Amino acid sequence: MATEINQLAPRASRGTMTSTFTALDWLMFVMYFVLLALTGWWINSSGAKNSQEYFIGSNSMPTWLAAISVLATAQSAATFLGGPDSGYRSNLTYLASNIGALMAAFFVGYFLIPRFYRYKVSTVYELLELRFGSRAKKQAGLMYLFGRIFANGARLYMAAIAVSMILFTDIALHHVIWSIALLCLVSLLYSIFGGIKSVIYGDAFQCFVYVGAAVLVLLYLWSSIPADFSTLWQALENPPHNAASKLTLIDTSWDFSSANAFTLYSSVTGLFLLYIASFGLDQDLTQRALTCRNARQGSLAIIWSVVLVIPVTLVFMLIGFLLYIFYQRPDLMSGSGAVMQSSQFSGENITVFMYYVLHEMPAGLRGLVTVGVIAAAVSTLTSGLNSMASVIIQDLYKPWQQQRHTKSEQYYVRAARVSMLFCALALALMAMLCFYWQQSSDMPLLPFALGVMVFSYSGLLGVYASALFSQRGSPASVLAALIGGFVITLLMQPYLQRYYLPTNWQFDLAFSWQLCIGFACSFVICQLGKNSDAVAQKELNGVPA
């Protein structure tokens, strides 16, 4: 998520592109969609018989496949394009965030996943019903849906901008709309019939495509640099002008600013909390762990996803390192390097990797990178659509419908497919709103949209901590904690501080520390409610509390 923030900015001067799609690029494009159609047909051929199968795959997914699905869901098209930018501009400290991720994976595997399996839940928010009643479940579900529409809509916009730049060589409104429609249509067709099984198998295919594309780009870049390994190592270890080493892995500085969000202390505090929320409280990722055969395998899927993300992230960062050599070290390029003329294209800020794709990448490989962007975007979109539908049906619609009429399981499967369609429409509209807002306003909608899930995590962490480790809290304090955590974290954003704080009072605080403050405030707010025994459930899904 950190690589996604602030990659795009309001309109400025128009840029140009020196290369367009060739026949070989289009061949890569066609081959991808043929393979996509064939795998989609094979995966969706059986369909889903009931809502449990549609949303958690009847607990039949192997651990390794669920782990890859978690990995693919967490890495969006923005990560595909922004990961190399992190390597280009910074060092390896981003990898240190996996210390917090691994700690969080074990925490979630011990405290949360076994409870989810014990009570046979389809969504993570059902667990709140035990302590705080059905209202709390609905409130948390609505908070999740609100955040996902903004966050995934913004990611869809960023992917569509990249696709439009490469396919159409511009970001005209009608081309961006076509790109949005292409990504939504592919995502829907791939996942709407088979449910979560289609999503997970599809994630494995998409992950193979975009990681394969990244590895080929890395190899091509390596071959285009006429320096040997030891020379490159020294160039990265000792950059000119006494700059800090780009090979630094652990940062032990006490810098709380956004420029150093991945220090060791940040990794074991704020990033630890971030990954607890991401792995255990965000239906988008946790749903994959709920599809395994038992709690142990579900926990292992989360842990293995963290192990797998390290080499994948390293590939993207190494691309950034080589782009640094390519553009910033002409002394090592023997005249074969290039100069980055502008970091903008048609008024949009673009990453160094996107600039390289637009201006330097050869035919064939450019098409493969386009396919990689689409694959990363489709993986994130299919996962989001199914997880959003699961919350809408299981937490909101099904309990309401069961109070009125008895409906068959096939009815809820059909309802889930309809809800996925509406979710896709909502994300498309959000993406178009981001496009319009970026082109016509200085108000920072996109940073808000990309960060909204982090704001939501503050409240969810406080509420779940109260549910797991205390006997206090009530439906009213749960709602106040969810809203309070969101608002407190939101108010710490620099783009809002200028509206309510004097200039000399404004501060720059990394998102990891913002999350710590938001979580602490949310937990205190939730604790203000008295014991909730009056609304607590004695059982959940037939299992005693």
Task: Describe the structure using short key phrases.
545 residues, mainly alpha, two-stranded antiparallel sheet, two-stranded antiparallel ribbon, 23 helices, 69% helix, globular, disordered N terminus
Query: What proportion of the residues is helical, as a percent range?
Result: 55-70%
| Principal-axis shape | globular
> How much strand?
under 5%
| Separation, N- and C-terminal Cα atoms | 36 Å
Q: SSE string, helix = H, strand = E?
A: HHHHHHHHHHHHHHHHEEHHHHHHHEE
- Indicate the radius of gyration in whole angstroms: 23 Å
Low-confidence stretches: 2-19
Biggest sheet features: 2 strands, antiparallel
What's the arrangement of strands in the largest beta sheet?
1-2
Number of strands: 4
Question: Structural class of the secondary elements?
Answer: mainly alpha
> Would you tell me the overall average pLDDT?
87
Number of helix segments?
23
Structural topology:
Elements: H1 23-44, H2 51-56, H3 63-74, H4 77-89, H5 97-111, H6 113-118, H7 128-132, H8 134-168, H9 173-191, H10 196-224, H11 229-237, H12 264-267, H13 270-281, H14 283-289, H15 295-328, H16 330-333, E1 344-345, E2 348-349, H17 352-359, H18 365-402, H19 409-440, H20 445-469, H21 475-491, H22 494-500, H23 511-527, E3 539-540, E4 543-544
Antiparallel strand pairs: 1-2, 3-4
Helix pairs in contact: 1-10, 1-18, 3-10, 3-14, 3-15, 3-18, 4-15, 4-18, 5-13, 5-15, 8-9, 8-18, 8-19, 8-20, 8-21, 9-18, 9-19, 10-15, 10-18, 13-14, 13-20, 13-23, 14-18, 18-19, 20-21, 20-23, 21-23
